[in-house]
Design goal:
Layout: H1 14-20, E1 40-50, E2 57-70, E3 82-89, E4 98-105, E5 122-130, E6 134-142, E7 149-157, E8 164-170, E9 184-193, E10 208-209, E11 230-239, H2 252-260, E12 263-266, E13 281-283, E14 288-294, E15 304-308, E16 311-315, E17 318-329, E18 333-339, E19 347-351, E20 360-364
Antiparallel strand pairs: 1-2, 2-3, 2-4, 3-11, 4-9, 5-8, 5-11, 6-7, 6-9, 7-10, 12-20, 13-14, 13-19, 14-18, 15-20, 16-17, 16-19, 17-18
Length: 367
């Protein structure tokens, strides 16, 4: 099948996707190739968030962790990267949660026809590696506002420090629909440690009404109790089928644009002379600069905009450091207001003043 690539400034829309690439994988960035936030974060503890590989969220309530985009991958499978969690300061395993997650918008799941007699089966497949053998759990939560639902499967990591592929098929849920929203309606969890309250019930491979105790197996092996503990994940695919197919590799540029629906970063690697945004700025008065910016990809919802490090305003008369003051946002554009000391009426642009990777604007519409 011929693949038509979208240009770097073209919005990804359902119509364009339908006319160019037939995505079968409901997971975004399942090969862990996109990491806009950076390739490694140290000292992660007692927190839930996005750190390296786009769309991949981690929970680390036990110990201290380094989270990274790794180049350790299963041999001969075509992957270049994996998502790695490495325990650097131990806690007590299974005293609380250690997990990897991905959340999926409901409007991307309507083809599953849940809540009807035509509900489709889904198959999850992934490659995983850990130092610690034993029992682990994968689960999916349908966040239906009328009745939340849950299913999962238990699997075993059989050999330490060895890549293993895991696959499981679930029947469709004929009783409960997936709400058609841009919110997280499927929550996917890979459980590596879990408090007892999450392990008191039964992990079922058929859909059941949600109960927190049914999330994970009672004999969960548990990571986070030793500085030897680590886990790698890659090649994640969730598809509407009764068996697993080969992993669907998406061209890097298209994969990046899919990730930018949720998160975009301006300026972290830009040369000092470059405009961090794609719009001209202007000083409306002696203390304010306005910067209208069309987003390169339409985002999931109106994003938040955050300044990190030092941002500057460049005019013909020189460069002045500025502070992000306020924003007006939509899914397609942001209108930023910066404060500082300026000559009223000067045109210019927003830039990274010294090229440092710590200077950037973060545009966030994550689930």
């Amino acid at each position: 099948m011929a693949i038509t690539r979208l240009g770097p400034n073209q919005d990804i829309t359902a119509a364009k996707i339908a006319g160019t690439i037939n995505f079968k994988n409901l997971i975004i960035n399942g090969d862990m190739s996109i990491a806009q936030r950076g390739t490694s974060v140290t000292g992660v503890t007692t927190t839930d968030g996005y750190y390296t590989c786009d769309r991949w969220r981690s929970q680390t309530d036990i110990g201290t962790w380094t989270i990274s985009q790794s180049t350790d991958v299963p041999t001969g499978q075509g992957f270049a990267n994996s998502f790695k969690m490495d325990c650097t300061s131990a806690g007590t395993s299974n005293a609380d949660e250690v997990s990897i997650r991905q959340y999926i918008e409901g409007q991307f799941l309507q083809q599953l026809a849940y809540g009807t007699s035509s509900a489709k089966s889904i198959t999850i497949s992934f490659w995983i590696k850990s130092n610690k053998t034993g029992d682990y759990t994968f689960s999916i939560k349908n966040v239906n506002s009328s009745q939340e639902r849950l299913l999962g499967f238990n699997y075993t990591i059989d050999s330490a420090n060895t890549w293993e592929k895991k696959t499981f098929t679930f029947s469709g849920d004929t009783s409960t629909s997936i709400e058609n929203t841009n919110s997280a309606e499927f929550e996917l969890y890979w459980w590596f440690s879990a408090a007892s309250a999450l392990r008191t019930g039964t992990v079922s491979n058929t859909w059941q009404n949600y109960s927190a105790g049914n999330h994970a197996i009672s004999t969960l092996a548990g990571l986070g109790g030793s500085t030897d503990d680590e886990v790698y994940l890659t090649g994640v695919q969730l598809e509407a089928d009764t068996s697993a197919s080969d992993f669907e590799f998406i061209p890097y540029d298209v994969n990046l644009q899919r990730c930018q629906r949720y998160y975009q970063i301006f300026g972290s690697t830009a040369p000092t002379s470059c405009n961090m945004t794609n719009g001209m700025a202007y000083s409306a008065n002696s203390s304010e600069v306005f910067c209208p910016t069309i987003l390169p990809v339409v985002m999931r919802t109106g994003p938040s905009v955050t300044q990190n490090g030092t941002i500057a305003y460049r005019t013909p008369g020189g460069t002045t450091n500025v502070t992000l003051n306020s924003t007006a946002v939509s899914e397609k554009e942001v209108f930023m207001n910066f404060s500082g000391s300026f000559t009223s009426g000067d045109p210019g642009y927003i830039r990274n003043p010294d090229g440092s990777s710590s200077n950037y604007l973060e545009v966030d519409a994550e689930l």
